[in-house]
Write a structure and sequence with these properties.
The structure holds 2 protein chains of 2 kinds. By secondary structure, chain A is α+β, with helices and mostly antiparallel strands. Chain A folds into 2 domains: about 200 residues, no CATH class; about 130 residues, no CATH class. Chain A contains 12 helices and 7 strands. In chain A, strands 1, 2, 3, 4, 5, 6 and 7 form a 7-stranded mixed beta sheet that branches. In chain A, helix 7 runs antiparallel to helix 8, helix 7 packs across helix 9 and helix 9 runs antiparallel to helix 10. The longest helix of chain A has 21 residues. Chain A is globular and about 80 Å long. In chain B, strands 1-2-3-4 form a 4-stranded antiparallel beta sheet. Chain B is globular, with a radius of gyration of 15 Å. The two termini of chain B are about 25 Å apart. Classes of the chains: A alpha+beta, B alpha+beta. Chains A and B meet through helix 11 and helix 12 of A and strand 2 and helix 2 of B.
């Protein structure tokens, strides 16, 4: 007998999905910020190619890596408008030592006193960070191409200024190939993508025309505008957000985003809601960590397109880190159960949402839901589901027509000032 | 011209058709009926009772004036610290157990409900709205369902 299964692609289909999707929209890089990032990227590239720059005509290519390249950028936890953008600056100069490569890029970006970036950059161990007043950070990592026949197989440089130079090293990477691999394999469900994109654009009051610079590799168009957002990537963003919430107070290195991206992709499939993806991905991460623990090892995740490009080279540092993440994933799955438990109160479900993704974002989602639903209840324009409840998604067709508007009446509690 | 009141039988019939999960039983007083059933504000199930009866001389029961809806389980939670509508929103406070107080679902002075209307098409959907707004009130302390309060404390107007 054929069995018809129901796949609710609409991210606002049930209360749990609705709360998750609204949270994802809140932590997503909005199109206007994306456009700003593109402008800034172009400005930095132009600045590096200026007359007098130590890197004039010495940059082969300038491309974004990491979250931006796969459409999974999220807000930083402690900056309401903060986004961290990673860019690779592939140099034409060969044989640079790590310290020299990083210093060269640092001086090229910094420029003369009074110039644009002079007072807002910092040299890190592997990159140069430009900090903007609105909270955006752009990390520029110098790189050297290793194999012209395996494009963008490169190494980046590691040089901690306060350590002896003999500790400097290079690290194999091919983030470009991984981004391609991820984007090729991450499934996009059109109905989901359209609905999600609509909400992302509606919530972005500063949506501006996206800009591209013809002189550089095109940045990926914002996923909510062109191409469509994958529910897998939305789930990945929420897992990264949860990781930030759990790990930032611990003040230690956290699991790398690229490791989470790779693990998410290992179990990616189409036709799942955000909640289903979260459950599948979190269970998979837990399984991988638990298997490593049972084998007495630390988890090892490698770039599927570049052997030796290890995504777990800096985390976990030890078994303690790994155990903490195992506990986090178990807690996350339990919290997910509460979020989707229909017999829990809205209060309990939104409280667990705050615990999972942060109090500020959780409350915003809760309060916006309250405002929207209040309008629908007062106007009688809500939909009523087959089981009798008000549907969390106003876009769905109602099973029963809603009744005419009514005015709630009654008495105040004796002595109360409520009226 | 006033519309013709619906009979108790017509109310029972309409409830059976639109809300088949609601079981009617005879009320404690003559010519009254009580339905027991489950309703959802959003997804959580609430057990409610709906009591209604024909007018009867000498009886002051509220259910003879209007349908009386009570939430049986899970119990309503009183919140005296709520920013709005503390300690419970839009109910007709009735002791000793205030958590079983009737819900105030319509404005009687505005003529929003009369006996010509079917409980199945008005009272029950309004109770669903009340439960949805209650869920939000419980979480936020804000009552988003709108409404007004009786300024004159007229017991006969409470709904």
């Amino acid at each position: 007998m054929n069995t018809f299964t129901r796949h609710p692609f609409n991210p606002w289909d049930t209360l749990g999905e609705r709360l998750l999707a609204s949270t994802a929209v809140k932590v997503e890089l909005p199109p206007s910020q994306y456009a700003k990032m593109v402008e800034r990227k172009a400005a930095i590239e132009k600045h590096l190619q200026r007359d007098g720059s130590p890197l004039k005509d010495l940059i082969r290519i300038f491309y974004q890596q990491g979250s931006v390249a796969i459409g999974a950028t999220i807000r930083a936890k402690f900056r309401s408008e903060g986004f961290d953008i990673d860019i690779i600056v592939e140099l034409l100069v060969e044989g640079l030592t790590p310290a020299r490569a990083l210093d060269l890029l640092y001086h090229a970006v910094r420029g003369e006193p009074g110039s644009r970036y002079h007072d807002c950059i910092e040299r890190q161990t592997r990159c140069i960070t430009i900090s903007y007043a609105d909270g955006m950070h752009i990390d520029l990592s110098p790189a050297e191409l290793l194999d012209p026949y395996d494009p963008r197989k490169s190494h980046i440089f590691h040089s901690k200024p306060d350590e002896p130079r003999w500790k400097d090293t290079t690290i194999l990477t091919n983030s470009f190939a991984f981004a391609e691999y991820y984007n090729d394999r991450c499934p996009v469900d059109q109905a989901f993508a359209e609905e999600f994109g609509k909400r992302v654009r509606a919530s972005d009051a500063q949506l501006a025309v996206m800009m591209k610079d013809a002189d550089s590799l095109p940045v990926p168009d914002h996923s909510s505008v062109v191409g469509g957002k994958s529910a897998v990537t939305v789930a990945l963003q929420l897992i990264k957000r949860n990781r930030n919430i759990r790990w930032l107070p611990r003040n230690r290195r956290m699991p790398a985003s690229v490791m989470l991206s790779c693990l998410s992709l290992e179990v990616a499939a189409s036709g799942r809601t955000i909640g289903e993806n979260l459950r599948v991905i979190a269970s998979h991460i837990l399984d991988r960590l638990t298997a490593a623990k049972r084998a007495g090892k630390l988890i090892h995740v490698e770039n599927p397109r570049c052997q030796g490009d290890c995504f777990t080279d800096r985390w976990p540092e030890n078994f303690g880190d790994q155990d903490v993440m195992i506990s986090d994933m178990k807690l996350f799955l339990n919290q997910l159960d509460v979020l989707f438990d229909e017999q829990r109160s809205f209060k309990e479900r939104t409280q667990v949402l705050e615990a999972m993704f942060g109090e500020t974002v959780g409350r915003q989602v809760r309060d916006e839901f309250a405002d929207e639903q209040g309008f629908l209840i007062r106007s009688g324009k809500h939909s009523v589901g087959a089981a009798g409840g008000v549907l969390a998604s106003p876009s769905l067709v109602s099973e029963r027509p809603a009744a005419k508007p009514n005015t709630f009446y009654g008495r105040s509690w004796p002595g109360s000032r409520n009226r | 011209m006033a519309r013709k009141p619906k009979s108790l039988a017509a109310q029972i019939d309409a409830m059976k058709r639109r809300w088949p999960g609601f079981e009617p039983t005879l009320g404690l007083e003559p010519q009254t009926v009580v339905w027991f059933g489950n309703l959802r504000g959003y997804e959580r199930t609430f057990r409610v009772s709906v009591e209604f009866g024909n007018p009867m001389a000498g009886s002051a029961s509220m259910c003879r004036l209007m349908p009386v809806v009570r939430v049986l389980s899970p119990s309503l939670i009183m919140n005296f610290d709520a920013a709005e509508e503390a300690p419970l929103p839009h109910i007709y406070f009735e002791g000793p157990n205030y958590k079983l107080s009737p819900l105030c679902l319509f404005d009687p002075k505005a003529g929003e409900w009369d006996r010509s209307m079917l409980i199945a098409n008005t009272t029950i959907p309004w109770a669903v709205r009340w439960l949805a707004a209650y869920e939000i009130w419980e979480a936020t302390g804000r009552w988003v369902g709108g409404g007004r309060h009786d300024a004159h404390k007229d017991a006969n107007d409470a709904a």
